[in-house]
Amino acid sequence: MAVAATPVRRRNPIVVEDERAGWVFLAPAMSIFLVFIFGSILFAFYLSFHNYALLQKGGIWPVFTDPGKTWVGFDNYRAIFKSGDFWQAFRNTTWYALGVVPAQTITGLVLAVLANRAIRGRTFFRTAFYFPSISSSVVISIIFLWMYSARGFVNYALKAFGFPTPRPVWLANPKGVVDVLLGQVGIHNVPTWLEGPSVAMLSIMMLNVWTTTGTIMVIFLAGLQGLPGDVYEAAAMDGANRFRQFKDITVPLLKPIIGFVITIGLIGTFQVFDQIYVMSEGGPQKTTTTIAYMVYVEGFRQGRGLGYASAIAIILLVVIMTLYLIQRRFTTERDTDRKVPGGIRAWLTLHLTRGGQGQTAR
Amino acid sequence: MTEKFMNRRWSTRNRIRAIPLAAAAIAAPTILRHSTLAQQVEIRLTGWTSSDAEQKLFEQILDEFRAANPDIKLTYEPIPSDYATKLQTDIAAGSVADVFYVDSLAAPDFMVNGALLELDSFMQKDSVNAADFYPGLIQSFQMDGKTYGLPKDWSSLAMVYDKKALTDAGVANPPTNWDELKAAGQALKAKAGEPRIVIPPDIAREFAFHYAAGAEVISKDGSSIVIDSPEAATALDFYYGMYKDGIATTPADTGAGWPGDALAKDFGDLVFEGNWVFPFLKENAPDLDFGISEMPDGPSGKATLAFTVSFSAYAETKQPDAAWTVINYLTGAEGMGKWTSLGLAMPARTGLSDAWLKQFPEREPFLKSGEYARGWQLGPGGQAFYNDANGDLQGLFAGTLDVPTTLKNWQKEAESRIKLGGGGATPEASPVS
Question: In this predicted model, what pLDDT tens digit does every residue of A263-315 receive, in sequence order?
């Protein structure tokens, strides 16, 4: 039989033009992203295999051919994993994330549900809750430096209500919180990894929850607007009270948004730097040194060099990526077949929008 | 009329004619500027900023320099904060100023990495003698026999106290040794009901006690770290002991930023600070009748720390001669004399100390301490060690570490961070010897 000729497949020209237009519009942002973000990551990866001090004879330009760089392979990584400082920074950052992300997610959700009700002054409350998120994190840190000082507002309020104040004072206190609490009950000699964040770290965590809850609230508010009202009516008719409605309708329907909020929360908290730099400079006895702050100190403050710092940064990248992938399994809807994984959308949002420049969860 | 001109169609010939005119119009300001200033050499000066009064006086001195040197265009661009980091990154990028301040603790790192210009040939040409400066100070900026900076001023640590508070507590004379210091602290506490000595958990103060107990950091031959020693334990026991026994407190506990702040706000009566505290006290506590006296003797005798800063030039500066002229003026007898007349620090030139003492006779204890003060420098890697060691000291004060563990940590950190045999001041350097 004659061979059937397969018809020449031509793509719909309108679709082709649309796609091309899409790429053209995307090109400026994409090129900035490729050069400054993706390119920096690749360069940091390259540097992490070198020993490279910032202070060099004749400066470090041009970097690629600078003889001051020496190839050391995986030595930096080995030194980091053996270094007590790094593990302390890792512990600090983990406690920070474990504390801040659930706190800000739950508080943001509760506030959003409350601010969604038609009460008087709703706009005022929404503005008031959101205001800390748009203020400069440095300014807030400086104000809280005063508030946490020995004669500051926090101690004053505690004393006025008859509560004891910590000694040393908040930001100078390196004792682990769990350690202190267990000590009150008489349990001593708690293992290091169980000590909890230090009192100084706790102060900074509380500050951060207060700052970022507003953004989370706004995100949830947007999500709540999209929920169908008739489901609530039906549930109310069946006798479900407000709390059950919240637990069984709101939360499950908001699952993808909760997932998104936890994602940006994790990404932001693991990279926290501003507040540490302004308030405690790595803290009493290095208990507020986070991984990102350690990168800064080792690279730029006569530490072990840019190569070492880059290695720490790459390890941070791997950690955040892993956490993100883990939490994605639990919060994305598996029944819908998405063409663009929720992850890429979150990632792009984070890096291409102002609100997402890591400032949401810091 | 102009509209007609603008609306007229421009023929190709006119367009071509217009190009050189436009280019000339755009380039004219730049060309003019360069031709009139063709003889001027540009030098950029940077440093950290301090109080407004200091900045005004410094600008005055710079104006006098500019008047005396019309062929040098001097721009002063101070760095408002985070000086060390910004300076390092500027050097790394090759865009650092030509002349800048270098702190004595940071100096070895800069010298070892070849970031500073050698000044010996310039000094010879202008007959500037290294011997005119206090030996311990200029040695902080010398390595392998070469000079990389000239000290601009210095200050040591001494005891500054509230005279009335001491007499009210029954202490007739300021303490002259550690036992008397302890007794005075107890008397002050008994009178006020709270500790009145203010000490920070910072080795930039604790080391005055460390050296006074006879402890060291680097061994005399420069080959090993000896910071963990019985003498160091004595010093640390005493320093932390004051806090533990409740006769001293930290600035953080009082709500002040630093001990001078605590003294000014009357949160404390006795602190160990340098000359920088006096302009601060004048502005913030003008009625305070304070006394000055040398640091109390330790078990091994007298010791204190000498903090100094140099003017140095960038090794790759394009105008080394002009940079030297600036440095020479600012560290010369005239420039230094004017700068130190504000009382923020003492002159680094031995010849100027008499005039300074005439102006500030009550500060003689500072000048006298020059005979035994130890330079504040720990070799290459000293700054990194300083950050690490302070972390441990904070832990000690918070009660999470004890003295032996703190010293063991210091030993480990010093061995890890300080590069021995690298240069900078020898362990024994002192300002007047």
Answer: 899 999 999 998 899 888 888 889 999 999 999 999 888 788 889 999 999 99
In this structure, is the dihedral angle defined by the CA atoms of residues A24, A28, A34 and A35, taken in order, positive or negative?
A: positive
Q: Which residue of A has its CA nearest to B406?
A: A285
pLDDT at A98: 94
- Indicate yes or no: CB of B89 within 8 angstroms of CB of A151: no
**pLDDT band at B214, cuts 50/70/90?**
very high
Model confidence pLDDT, tens digit, residues A58-90: 555 666 666 677 889 899 999 999 998 999 999
A323: left (phi over 0), alpha (psi -120 to 50) or beta: alpha
Domain, as residue range, for B353: 41-155+306-368
Q: What is the mean pLDDT of residues B403-432?
A: 75
**CATH label of the domain that carries residue A281:** 1.10.3720.10
Please indicate, yes or no, if residue B96 is contained in any of the structural domains. Answer: yes
Contact status of A134 with chain B (Cβ, < 8 Å): no
- CB-based contact (8 Å) between B312 and chain A? no
Do the chains contact at A54 and B93, CB–CB below 8 Å? no
pLDDT greater than 80 at residue B363: yes
Question: Is A73 part of any domain?
Answer: no
Q: Is residue B3 part of a domain?
A: no
Using the beta-carbon criterion (under 8 Å), do A172 and B250 form an inter-chain contact? Answer: yes
Residues B296 and B310 in one domain: no
Task: Give the residue-averaged pLDDT of A204-210.
Answer: 94
Determine the residue of chain A that is closest to B106 in CA distance.
A302
B387 contacts chain A (CB < 8 A): yes
CA B164 to chain centre: 31
User: Taking a C-beta distance cutoff of 8 angstroms, is the pair B233, B403 a contact?
Assistant: yes
**Is B251 a member of any domain?**
yes
Which candidate in B91, B110, B265 is best for mutational testing of the A interface (most A CBs within 10 A)?
A: B91
- Given an 8 Å threshold on Cβ–Cβ distance, is A149 in contact with B401? no
Q: Are residues B250 and B385 in the same domain?
A: yes
Percentage of chain B surpassing pLDDT 70?
A: 92
β-sheet bridge partners, residue B161: B270, B291
Does one domain contain both B328 and B340?
A: yes
Domain of residue A180: give its range: 85-300+320-352
**What CATH number is given to the structural domain containing B181?**
3.40.190.10
Residue A7 pLDDT class (50, 70, 90 cuts): low
Token pair listed for B326: 């600036």
Evaluate whether residue A40 is within a structural domain.
no
Contact B115 A57 (CB under 8 A): yes
Domain termination residue (choose one: B368, B390, B408): B368
**Cα separation, A319 vs A312, whole angstroms:** 11
Split into its structural domains, chain B has a count of 2
Q: Could you give the ipTM of this predicted complex? A: 0.79
- Give me the sheet containing B270-273, strands edge to edge: B248-249, B197-198, B270-273, B158-162, B290-293
Does A328 have pLDDT greater than 50? yes
Q: Are residues B278 and B315 in the same domain?
A: no
| DSSP string for B281-336 | HHHH-TT--EEEEPPPBBTTB--EEEEEEEEEEBTT-S-HHHHHHHHHHHHSHHHH
CA distance B128 to A107: 68
Model-level pTM?
Answer: 0.82
Q: How many domains does chain A contain in total? A: 1
Residue A163 is assigned to a structural domain of this protein: yes
Residues of B in contact with A61 (CB under 8 A): 92-94
pLDDT, tens digit, for every residue of A158-199? 999 998 888 788 988 888 888 888 888 888 777 877 888 999
Tell me if A96 sits within 8 A of A292, measured CB to CB.
no
pLDDT at residue B169, as a whole number: 93
Cβ of B89 and A54 within 8 Å?
yes
Q: Is the CB of residue A166 less than 8 Å away from at least one CB of chain B?
A: no
Q: Are residues B91 and B218 in the same domain?
A: no
pLDDT at position B189 is 94
In a domain? residue A27: no
Amino acid identity for residue A187 in this structure: I
Same domain, B294 and B147: no
Residue of A55, A180, A277 to mutate, testing the B interface (most B Cβ within 10 Å of its Cβ): A55
The answer to whether residues B151 and B161 belong to one domain is no
